[in-house]
Amino acid sequence: MPKKTSIQKRRKTVPGSKSQRTRKTSSSAQTTRPAVKAKPRKSARTDTTHHKTTEENTSRIILDTEQFEKLETTQIEKEYIDTIINQLPIPIAILRVNEVNGEYQYIYEFVNESISKLNNRTKKEHIGHSLEEIITVKEAAQDIKANFRNVIKSKKITVRQISIPIKGKLGQLLEFHFPIEYNNSVVSVGAALIDITELVQVREEAEKRSQELQESHEKLETRVQERTKELRQRNQQLKNLLAHLENVREEERVHIAREVHDELGQILTAFKFDLSELEELISPDSKGIGNLVKKLIKDADTTLESVQRILTQLRPQVFDIFGVGPAFEWQANEFQKQTGITCEVNHFPENLQIEKDKSLILFRIFQEALMNVKHHAQASRVQISFSVNSEDMIMEIKDNGVGIKMENVDDPQSFGILGIQERADLLGGTASFRSNPGEGTTVSIRLPK
User: Fold this and answer.
1) Which domain-ending residue is among 160, 195, 230?
2) pLDDT digits 0-9 by tens, 321-333
3) Are 358 and 396 in the same domain?
4) For site-directed labelling of 200, which of 41, 95, 342, 432 has its Cα 20 to 30 A away?
């Protein structure tokens, strides 16, 4: 804060003031004056007028002193603000706007040190000079004037990015143009510059890196698509191979069943007839031979039953004769006879049109599911249900056994589950498994109609 002593020195002692009267009184008290004849005393009106004049003069001097103090404070504040602006690292310039014949002229009123360093001109070389005298490149000056004109008309701040040489290199700056108004009229325009060269370089580097990453991503995406296409082709080839193997296996089963029926079946049947004829020729006294023949006949019957069962497992005749629905019911009855597990089949939908090869695969899925129940479920009941909607046919096989652990579903060693899934996939469908420990297992086969 400025010292008030300088202001106090400027104050003048007012004649007639109390302090002056006090000094006069004290000096007269110290000096012995000779007796003088008393003058006539002035009137009271004259004293009052003189007192008022003295007070007015004193008030005027005090007001002048206060105004001077205010002016001095304002000047100090202005110098302080100018110091701050000069020390800002942001180049700032203020130009006065003069309108001559409808054209705007711009004269530098103020620049800070940063803008002087930017264009290598001192502050004195700026102040009072026109924009064209400082910005010597005509195109650049016209561009700035056009932008100033927009600021004056809109009375709004404009921001744009420009490129100018800085220390021998091309720099990137944000240029702010802003209006300065007085009495609702733009009297000056200001310009401020922020160097964003490093930010632009970082952004460009980031964009370059992003472009590189994008190119790498596109290459990787292309490679993934190619690899996915290859995998799909391989998968389709495997599906075709599995379908072919399934057909070959069914054909082999049919062939083996026919061979067994035609060859082994006929031989066993003939062997049984021969044993029956031999039994009639044996004398009643030859009980040992008779018993042996009876045992051979019984063994032949058992063998024929085994052959018939094997033939049925290879290719159920009921499937070829009556179709897939009766084949399911027959298999359920056979499963119940063999295992003692109650097996219930809901009526197979008659309106379901399915090709014979596909219906055979569905039947094999059913057989595989029953085998899993027999060997792993520890169930006492199995229920098979069918449902059809506008898009799919769904077969569900539900047991009341111990259930399975869901991690076993994805176990590559679970060949029964794997066989069900592969066959469902061959039909263009899906196989899913639901189970909770102690609550049984539900196998759902969903096939497109």
Assistant:
1) 195
2) 888 888 899 999 9
3) yes
4) 95
